[in-house]
Structure formats: structure tokens, C-alpha cells
Amino acid sequence: MAYLLGLDISTTGAKALIIDERGTVIASETTPQPISTPKPLWSEQNPADWWDGIVASIHAALQSSGIAADAISAIGLTGQMHGLVLMDAAGKVLRPSILWNDQRTQAQCDEITQRVGAQRLIQLTGNRALTGFTAPKIVWVRENEPEVYAQGAHMLLPKDYIRYKLTGDYVMDISEASGTLLLDVANRRWSTDVLDALEIPAAWMPRLCEGSEVSAVISAEAAALTGLKAGTPVVGGGGDQAAGAVGVGAVDPGVVSLVVGTSGVVFAPLDQYSYEPEGRLHAFGHAVPGRWHFMGVTLSAAGSLQWYHDALGHGLSFDELLAPAADVPAGSDGLIFLPYLSGERTPHPDPLARGAFIGLTTRHTQAHMTRAVLEGVAYSLKDCFNLMANANLPANLEIRASGGGAKSRLWKQIIADVLNATLMTTNSTEGAAYGAALLAAVGAGVFPDVRTATSTAIKTSDAVTPSANVAAYAAAYPNYRALYPALKDIFTRL
Asked: Could you tell me which residues come within 8 angstroms of residue 150 by beta carbon, excluding any fewer than 6 positions away?
């Protein structure tokens, strides 16, 4: 029996997951991770904490499973995207990692757009310059910490720093590299045009590989620290969203991953490179060889419900809060919620956007407000799907829903009605680490390709089909769409 290890460096924890060759989860262990906010809008972590956490989780997973290290056939990596790990020529980390949710780099984003050109940047990298991406962080270090920048020799992302610690090699997979704003995404190689325009040394860029490709092997030093076997293959892996998509089987066009987590993510595989002309969708390489993907991100999905529960739930459980909303008519009797509590990304890349209840009257109850929150998030997801449809996404989609919000039958029904599409759930509940382990299985030769791995391991169930409320939501959605343009100027003054 072959066993595969998936490692996930998320913002909150370092996870080690072991599966067998049938895709059955054998062990899952997570070590919490600290986070630092040294200044307002800043977000950093110490890469040494990631390493300590992943070592602890590997030991715990091996111990709890009772599996010997030499039974692990391959290792896959995933984790939070975009975070900058800047290292010197000896492999020493030069400063704390600037994370994906750090907001200090708007001036650098403007500079990048001016240097490369807005349309050229979108054409080459598939994206606008956003504060979350890696390139603006590099420029920020150069402009604000020149003494640190002068020592730089290597640039990695969080999971790839773990790869370096495991193997001694500087390697990054295509899906992660897509989120740096430095990749020629169509050709799956570093963009010399962008690097030259930004005056970032090409020598800093790690070697690229595909997600299921063996990238390196466990070193003797890492084996002694982790309990793993020296020489065990480590595959490329993928960013958290790409690996998560593999984890629910979203590997071919027509199968879409819909994650209703703190943020909402719509992930649609493509068989050829494409980009949204205004950059309102992310266009990345997939962790699956020969695949790309569109991604729409709404910043407050289940996060909106969490805020509403904490602020206005009056001590109710989530089930108690949601239950009365099932009896409210579709459209919440004219009440609309804008879920822009943390600004917005898709389709409105606006950090100043704000949340709002619109249309409140004396007839509205707490149940109306609850349902309006669920509907507002569903409308924001529809915005993502509409952009993808305009960018030639296949018309007949199988949507696989996951995340905390997808546990609510009511919320899934509302989303199915707003999208006028069937939502499926899968037997996979371990997220990105599971996808990383499946990529490892392909690299180990357990499966010939990613499609075979996912079709073997992942099963769908619990279909939620559109109801008679489709027409009501189709009528209400234009009102939701009209609100952001009407309020945008006011948001800037708040």
C-alpha cells in the first residue's frame, strides 16, 4: 500500500495529511501558526515558525497513523499564496514574510502598472497589480528597506520555503508563480518583460515545475529533523486555491470549484490561457499540467455571516440564527445586503467598498436581515460567474461547493437559485492538503495523471437543484448590481 503526504502552510496552521492510494484519509494533524501585525494594514509571519510547525505536524501525523516513514511514496505541498520570502545567497531569510493580506503596497502597485502598462500587465500576467501579489512586496522592500534588498539572492513563497527546508532546492510550481505578477502565464515561464520593467533580478527567480512533477527529494538533514525518509520525492504542488480545486476534482473545463469560506472563491479550469480584458478575474496557471484557470474572489462570503452573527446574533447559534430565514420569501421583501465588509475584489477591485443593508422598512425582521446576508453573498458569487461567462467559460457547468458556508442547506439552495445551477458536494473535506496529496500520488506513479487521481478518489453527492425561486432572484439581482455604482462615490468619503 502506497501512502502520500500532503503539507499545507496556511495563514493559521501548518498541516500534515496522510492518505492511502485509494484517497482515504489516514491522519491529519495541524499546528497553529502565529501572525504579526507590526503596523496597521501590515501582516507578517516568521518562516521559521512555518518550519517548526510543519515538522511538528509531520511527526504527529506519522505517530497517529502508525505508518513508517519509508511507506510514504511522495509528498505534495500547498499553502497560502503570494507571501514574500526574501533570502540571501546562503539561504538565510532576510526579513519576516509579507503575507497575502498585507495592504502596504498600493503605491508600488501603481508604480508597477505605470512601468509595465495596464493592458500589457493583464495580457502577460493575467492580472492587475494588486496589493496581495508578490511583485509589489519586492518593490516595497527595495524602496523601504534597501539594506535588506541589497542582500537578496532568492525569492520564494511560503510553501516553497518549506520545500527548500525539506530538499535544499529553490523551486516553485506554476500555479503559485502565477500569483507573483512576474509570470508569463500563457507560456508558463518567468516574464523577462515584467522582470526587466520592474528591475527585479531574474536570478532571484526559482526553477519552475508543474504541480504533479517531482521537483526535488528529501535531504538527509531534513530527514533527520522530520522523521521522513531521505530521497522521498517532493512534487511541485500548488497554491491553496489550485490544490483545493484538485481536492474537489475541478481539473477540467466544465467543473467549477465554489468555496464559500471566509472569502468566496469561484475557480474555473481552462484548457488554454485566457484573461479578462479588464483584469476583474484572476487568470492563473493551474496545478494540473496543461491547464489554466479563472478565479473570482469575493472578500466577505462566510465572513459576512460571521460578522452578522457576532454583531447582531444576540447569542444565537448559527443554526438558530438561520432557521427563521427559511420562511422569508426569496428577495427578503426588498431588503438587499452588500457584502463588502472588507472592501471587494471581484468584480469591483475596490478596497474602499463598504457593506450595507439597503431597503430597510418597519416590516423587516431579524429573519429578513439574515436571509438578505445569505442572498447578498450569493449575488456577489453570481457577479463572478457572469464575468466568467463573458470570458467564454463553458455554458454547462458542474459546480462543486465546499467551505463552511456550504454546510448550510438553506444557503446552498439560495446560491443554486441565484445561479440557476445545480450545486454538488464531494466526499473530500480536507481542502488544499488533500489536493496536494493527490498531486503527490501522480508524481509517485500511483496514478498516470491528475484526472485519473481525482476521478478515483473524489465522489460527488447531495445535489441541490434550482427551485421555483429562480425567477424572484433573477428579478432582484439587477437591483443589487445597481447599488455599487450608485454608492461608490459615497464609499470614498466614509
From this structure: none
Q: Which residues pair with 292 in a beta bridge?
A: 270, 285
d(CA 185, CA 170): 20
Backbone angles phi, psi at 34, to 5 degrees: -75, 160
- Residue among 51, 55, 47, 144 nearest 86 (CA): 47
Report how many helices (DSSP H) and strands (DSSP E) the chain contains, helices first.
Answer: 17, 24
Cα–Cα distance, 355 to 341 (Å, whole number): 5
Rg (CA), the chain: 22
Q: Is residue 158 part of a domain?
A: yes
Q: C-alpha angle 435/438/439, rounded to 5°?
A: 90
Task: Assess if residue 439 is contained within a domain.
Answer: no
Which pLDDT score, from 0 to 100, does residue 107 have?
A: 96
Domain finish residue from 224, 242, 260: 242
Same domain membership, residue 267 and residue 187? no
Indicate if 333 belongs to the active site: no
Task: Provide the b/e sequence for 420-443 (b: ≥16 CB within 10 Å).
Answer: ebebbbbebebbbbbbbbbbbbbb
Q: Which amino acid is at 176?
A: E
Tell the residue number behind the cell numbers 484519509, with chain if given.
25
pLDDT at 331: 98
pLDDT along the chain (494 residues), means of 10: 95 96 96 93 95 98 96 97 97 97 93 98 96 96 98 98 98 98 98 98 98 98 97 98 96 94 93 92 96 94 95 93 97 98 90 94 97 98 91 79 92 97 90 96 97 95 94 98 97 92
- Find, among 47, 68, 53, 52, the residue nearest to 5 by Cα: 68
3-state secondary structure of 205: coil
Residue 393 has what pLDDT?
72
Note whether 345 and 421 are same-domain residues. yes
DSSP letters, 81-143, are SS-BEEE-TTS-B-SPEEPTT--TTHHHHHHHHHHH-HHHHHHHHSS---TTSHHHHHHHHHH
Catalytic residue among 49, 240, 252, 383: 240
Residue type (1 letter), 379: Y
